[in-house]
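## retry 2 of 3
previous attempt timed out at serialization; input unchanged, resubmitting
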Amino acid sequence: MFGRKKTKDQPLTSSYTETEEGIIIRLSGRLDSVSSAEFQEEAVQKCRGRSTTLDMDGVTYLSSAGLRAILALDKAVGRNNKLSVINAKDAVKDVLDMSGFSEFI
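## retry succeeded, writing output
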């Protein structure tokens, strides 16, 4: 890739914590086309029908595939529960804002 500096891949890691209010998912690394399908499958299964907080403090990159995974998670959480995103870094927050996601999560 001409003119672009290669960066070290940062695979996505996730941890799930159950609380009385719901589930907290802590993410770290890249939420992109490589990692989003596996994350989506696991998160939807664990969080279906439960309020969920997505702690994105460690997320370094968010692609459209990552946005699709968050949308699928929001649908799985359901109408009677809430999906919240917290601690997103500026670059990730910009993607959420530009895509309109910050208006509904």
